[in-house]
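Known limitations

Structure tokens in this collection are predictions and should be treated as such. Users comparing against experimental data should check residue numbering before alignment. To illustrate the layout, the record for N-acetylglucosamine malate deacetylase 1 is reproduced below. The input appears on top and the generated tokens appear beneath it.
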Amino acid sequence: MLVEQDLIPYSVSPLPSGPWLIFAPHPDDETFGMGGSLLLAREHGIPVVIVVLTDGALGGEGNRSDLILRREKEARKVARDLRVSALEFWRLPDRGLRADPQLIEKIGMAVHRYAPRTILFPSPMEYHPDHRVAAYAVWEAAKRWKGNLWSYEITAAGRVNRLIDISPVIDEKRRLMEVYSSQMAENDYAGKILSLNRMRTYTLPAEVRYVEAFFDFSAYLGTAFPGVVKKMLAPFWSREAYEG
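Generated tokens:
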């Protein structure tokens, strides 16, 4: 019978090798989901490129054009603090992201242009449709690429197999999240994200106070997306999961 260690890590993992190429559906997802890991990457001198896919126009009330500019300004401030190598805004429609051939091709071109060692994208288990579409589009663009392919958790606690200890930088992560004041005005995202980061330490030693959670898909490269999601979740419904 499978035990907890077969389903969730009981130790923390090192950062994946750089350079990193991160795909964020909206301005803020990269920081909410993996801001602590980005701070650690800065400390380790890992080059980072962030691509923001949508314009974020629906992330608040008021004039949409003004909100787009405000959210991009916030993202630029965070990027400067993180010393990222490049930040791109593709300005696709918020809540209208489509994994069409054009987007998949554009993602593939970004992978070719930046030549990362690790690509990071939202978990396919996320709730927001743009997050799930981003996961599919990145997978289709990179499934035959040779390197590390990790998903990062933003709002949903799904299946993960890597936990990064962000305890030493947790206060700075909160500060970075609060740079996104347009979003903090909508909800206490920072408090809720930190609660998720805290909850994820459930299987770890007491000195690990906060972690960010990822799924390393590198072993599944070449697999079609529906198949890889099934493999991701298969341990939970396999006969081995409930038979001794």
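For this record: The first strand starts at residue 20 and ends at 24. The chain has nine helices and seven strands. Please report discrepancies through the issue tracker.
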